[in-house]
Amino acid sequence: MDSLTATVPRTRYANAAAETRTFWALTVAGFRRYSTYRQATVAGAFTNTVFGFLRCYVLLAVAAGAGTATVAGYDPARLATFVWFGQGLLTVVALWGWTDLAQRISTGDVVADLLRPINPVTNYLATDVGRAGHAVLTRLLPPVLIGPLFFPIYLPHRWSTWPLFVLSVVLATVLCFGCRFLVNASAYWLLDIRGPMILWTLLSGVLGGLYFPLRFLPDWLIGPLWLLTPLPSLFQTPLDVLVEVDPTPRQLGLIAIQAAWAVGLLLLCRLVQRRAERKLVVQGG
Length: 285
Prior knowledge:
By secondary structure, this protein is an all-alpha fold. It has helices at about 15-35, 40-65, 75-95, 100-105, 110-115, 120-145, 160-185, 185-190, 195-205, 220-230, 235-245, 250-280. The longest helix has about 35 residues, at about 250-280. It is globular and about 60 Å long. Keywords: Membrane, Transmembrane, Transmembrane helix. This is ABC-2 type transport system permease protein.
């Protein structure tokens, strides 16, 4: 069956050190690529900050209307932290807007990708990690620094929360890449991904914890949503870890769920890519 694949044998990258250097080079290239869009970066950071004010006032009004000190474990400071760090993480995790693979499939340029001695999943993942690193510096910091000037925020009380938060953000970024890759890869069969992209945009925003904390939902829905779908691991888990609504053991459990989904989706991405390569060969591509 290996003869049916379009990808050149990757014996040149059998050495782990060579693969690591290649991944790092692609990551740096991804960072440099996104660092060239300076005006778009400034405009995006400004927009995220403006929407941060709107979302923060809305959620604080909801909390005040509940008539209790906390809502689903969130006090006003935790809600403000949820909003402002969420606005900063929006571009780091990058829910929407990536259609590079789908465009290359529709134009046929993806054939050139298959001739390169590196798996397309690894190639795009490394580039996306570089993009996320650039977003941490340019899109995460502005809302996080501006929000506390106008709203009281919650800072973690446990020293272990900060490294767990960083780990959770990394896993969320990888997990989101896997989801976006699969949406793009549907173009191998559908050619036009506007339908899957619209569905992904709606579900990831609502069920990912971007618009409101998912703990506002009924208890009977939260558990299955967390275990049966990867969506809460995109935003809800990193932000819940940060504001310490759970004790450390439960934080570790949520991160373990993230890691399981991230590994599973990356394996699924490779499987889908291999099936797509065989399809291209059968069609004569």
